[in-house]
């Protein structure tokens, strides 16, 4: 077995979560990397949807932006931006929304807007919402990929950009959000899933070589841990080769 | 009928200080040359609207052309922050920047309502987020048929919309293809519009998936080859990803940005 980085483990764990034949609304960065690894591994029929209006994009390389030319050139259909949101996302046609975040809380709500200070006078101004609020609301389920640290895994968000499970179980239903919300959070340390009763994110799996103490120390709240804590299978040589070829070719 | 104009005279004629200006383009076909010409014409107090303000809006903000930004995602795609935008929001440099912030779905629907001549658009969106607390232009609305709680956003009707397209014919009919974003809606929603194009051809030939904006729906067309660089124009040139990466370093530092502005914008010849 080759050696690998925590970042590579995270991308590969995220790729594994995507199932063949499903449709996936892909954010740029880690989600796009993982989705394109999945397409080269176990899910060649994964339908990638980018908010630029590219439905069924099949890029050879990792795009730098959500609107790179190769996404349009390889797509089954290129539609307008109002159409991708109104006709494809809003009615709940898309299986998985795949998002990253600057901050995440214990219910999988995310912040990509401001950090520190207040909204009108923030310490750090982030890019903002983009497509995320409606992706998080309307996809059948949501996968989040976030590097685990106390900076990102915070007890309280500075801003709720997109709703996960709100303040707990039943909140999505009360708010009228059609999708199931975050069902999976993949980090560089392990995997979290919402507790079926409380909707609180619970560590269910650690990546190889990661200790529970490390995961706890990288979480800004008291981390819930599953009774039976699983262990992620280390990346195979083939998975690493595919990921590395893809990232090297895209440099 | 659209007038065929030069970029300089077209913008001088159509854009005044204080206008609400939308320069749309979703990664593809971004009207960069037009944005830089607005800087050169030293427009002030503009309200700039765009779903994805990227480096040309960073330049306009850093150059002090904007009073307000209406947007849904303000970043350098695939690279990181827009440092001039951040400097304006975080430190009020070179001037404070008022912001009106939406999601993509909300912004897209604001243009849709504008293009349709309706006062507002309805969507399932924003619910449970903090955006409605800070953006007055997001309101709940009840469906009169089912009672469902939905969200309303008002029409966005720019004084001027500027977009870039692959080509136009000599009558000013405009054709664009590939990722066409929200440009059609943004042009139809606007009081006046300017389209910069890669080339003016005698006659438009049909293309799969292309949009045609008829001459009578556009105010002016200017031929500006390369006018979307460093973004791209499908079938003309590729996106210069390195320029987006280099912008990170240029824009990070106020002095370096001002040198860039003096050299590359104020000191540069108008492209058309």
TrEMBL record, chain A:
One of its GO terms (molecular function) is CoA-transferase activity. SMART domains: CoA_trans. InterPro entries: CoA_trans_fam_I (IPR004165), NagB/RpiA_transferase-like (IPR037171). Pfam families: CoA_trans. The lineage of its organism: Bacteria, Bacillati, Actinomycetota, Actinomycetes, Pseudonocardiales. Belongs to the 3-oxoacid CoA-transferase subunit B family. The keyword Transferase applies. Keywords: Transferase. This is Glutaconate CoA-transferase subunit B.
UniProtKB/TrEMBL annotation, chain B:
Pfam families: CoA_trans. It comes from Tamaricihabitans halophyticus. Belongs to the 3-oxoacid CoA-transferase subunit B family. One of its GO terms (molecular function) is CoA-transferase activity. This is Glutaconate CoA-transferase subunit A. SUPFAM superfamilies: NagB/RpiA/CoA transferase-like. The keyword Transferase applies. Keywords: Transferase. The keyword Transferase applies. InterPro entries: CoA_trans_fam_I, NagB/RpiA_transferase-like.
């Amino acid at each position: 077995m080759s050696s690998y980085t925590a970042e590579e483990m995270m991308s590969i764990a995220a790729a594994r979560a995507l199932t063949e034949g499903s449709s996936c609304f892909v954010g740029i960065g880690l989600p796009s990397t993982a989705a394109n690894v999945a397409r080269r591994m176990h899910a060649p029929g994964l339908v990638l949807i980018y908010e630029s209006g590219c439905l069924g994009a099949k890029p050879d390389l990792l795009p730098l932006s959500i609107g790179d030319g190769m996404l349009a050139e390889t797509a089954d259909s290129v539609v307008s931006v109002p159409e991708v949101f109104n006709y494809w996302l809003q009615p709940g046609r898309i299986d998985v929304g795949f998002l990253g975040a600057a901050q995440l809380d214990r219910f999988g709500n995310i912040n990509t807007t401001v950090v520190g200070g207040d909204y009108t006078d923030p310490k750090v101004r982030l890019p903002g919402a983009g497509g995320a609020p409606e992706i998080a609301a309307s996809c059948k389920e949501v996968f989040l990929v976030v590097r685990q640290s106390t900076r990102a895994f915070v007890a309280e968000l500075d801003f709720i950009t997109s709703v996960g499970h709100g303040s707990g179980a039943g909140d999505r239903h009360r708010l009228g959000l059609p999708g199931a919300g975050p069902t999976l959070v993949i980090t560089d340390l392990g995997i979290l899933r919402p507790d079926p009763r409380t909707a609180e994110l619970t560590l269910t799996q650690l990546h190889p070589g990661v200790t529970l103490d490390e995961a706890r120390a990288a979480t800004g709240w008291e981390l819930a841990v599953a009774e039976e804590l699983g262990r992620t299978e280390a990346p195979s040589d083939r998975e690493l080769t595919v990921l590395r070829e893809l990232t090297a070719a895209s440099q | 009928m659209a007038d065929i104009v030069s970029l300089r005279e077209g913008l001088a004629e159509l854009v005044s200080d204080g206008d609400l200006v939308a320069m749309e383009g979703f990664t593809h076909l971004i009207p960069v040359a037009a944005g830089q010409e607005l800087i050169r014409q030293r427009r002030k107090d503009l309200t700039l609207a765009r779903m994805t303000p990227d480096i040309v809006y960073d330049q306009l903000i850093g150059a002090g052309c904007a009073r307000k930004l209406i947007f849904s995602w303000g970043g350098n795609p695939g690279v990181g922050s827009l440092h001039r935008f951040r400097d304006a929001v975080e430190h009020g440099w070179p001037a404070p920047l008022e912001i009106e912030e939406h999601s993509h779905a909300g912004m897209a629907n604001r243009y849709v309502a504008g293009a349709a001549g309706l006062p507002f658009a309805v969507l399932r969106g924003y619910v449970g987020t903090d955006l409605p607390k800070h953006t007055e232009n997001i309101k709940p609305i009840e469906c009169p048929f089912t009672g469902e709680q939905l969200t309303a956003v008002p029409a966005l009707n720019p004084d001027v919309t500027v977009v870039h397209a692959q080509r136009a014919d000599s009558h000013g009919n405009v054709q664009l293809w590939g990722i066409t974003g929200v440009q059609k809606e943004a042009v139809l929603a606007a009081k006046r519009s300017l389209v910069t194009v890669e080339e003016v051809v005698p006659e438009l030939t049909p293309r799969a998936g292309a949009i045609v904006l008829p001459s009578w729906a556009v105010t002016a067309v200017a031929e500006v080859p390369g006018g979307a660089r460093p973004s791209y124009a499908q079938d003309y040139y590729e996106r210069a990803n390195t320029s987006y990466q280099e912008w990170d370093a240029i824009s990070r530092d106020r002095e370096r940005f001002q040198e860039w502005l003096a050299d590359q914008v104020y000191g540069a010849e108008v492209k058309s």
